[in-house]
Specification:
Largest sheet: 5 strands, parallel
Distance between the termini: 10 Å
Number of domains: 2
Helix content: 40-55%
CATH topology of the largest domain: Rossmann fold
Radius of gyration: 17 Å
Order of helices and strands: EHEHEHEEHHHHH
Shape: globular
């Protein structure tokens, strides 16, 4: 079994790994262990956490949001991931193996994945009108294209329609209802990351 360390931004991402990713990856000989970093995401903090996990796991990855990423400036998500990889490498030195390090920054935040199937929000008793409003957002935007503006980020849009939405508990329930097949079909960057994690089990 491949031991995969996952540096998760917060409770929501950690619960997603435990509730959704874990069962899927175990069937592919990969055992993910989420380690929560508690927000305040930056390249330096991520690299520190990933380097710490590097020696005790067969591979390490991250699950953090582009929204709220500190010090990103005008950097693209791809540029941030490359920078994280370089920073991890600088901490590993002569034991470095780039195949073990898979930096991943979610575009734009975890809640984007839930828009792969807005109807799944009915699982947390969102009324039909609320589900209809969420579906309307999805009809005009691909989940990963819902931007990271403070007013229009995926989680902000959900909260505006569903004020009682609980990111941790509700997010996990909705994510299970959405399912990984729908997420990977609607979210190309997420699909590429998941495919790389699955491939670890065949090495």
């Amino acid at each position: 079994m491949i031991r995969l360390g996952v540096v998760a931004e917060g409770d929501t991402e950690r619960e997603f790994v435990r509730s959704v990713l874990a069962d899927h990856l175990r069937r592919r000989n990969v055992e993910p262990t989420p380690i929560m970093m508690g927000g305040n995401v930056s390249v330096q903090r991520l690299a520190w956490h990933m380097a710490k996990l590097y020696h005790d796991h067969n591979a390490v990855t991250s699950l953090v949001d582009f929204y709220g990423f500190r010090g990103k400036g005008n950097a693209t998500i791809d540029a941030l991931e490359a920078c994280i990889g370089r920073q991890v490498r600088s901490r590993i030195h002569n034991r470095w193996d780039e195949r073990k390090v898979i930096p991943y920054v979610q575009k734009h935040e975890f809640e984007a994945l839930l828009f792969a199937c807005p109807q799944a929000f009915a699982e947390i008793d969102v009324p039909p009108e609320g589900v209809k409003q969420l579906a309307a957002i999805r009809s005009s935007l691909a989940p990963e294209d819902i931007d990271d503006d403070p007013e229009t980020a995926p989680s902000k849009r959900i909260a505006a329609i569903v004020p009682s939405y609980n990111k941790v508990v509700g997010g996990a329930v909705v994510a299970l209802a959405v399912g990984l097949p729908a997420m990977r079909a609607a979210c190309p960057r997420f699909r590429a990351w998941l495919t790389r994690l699955e491939a670890l089990g065949s090495k």
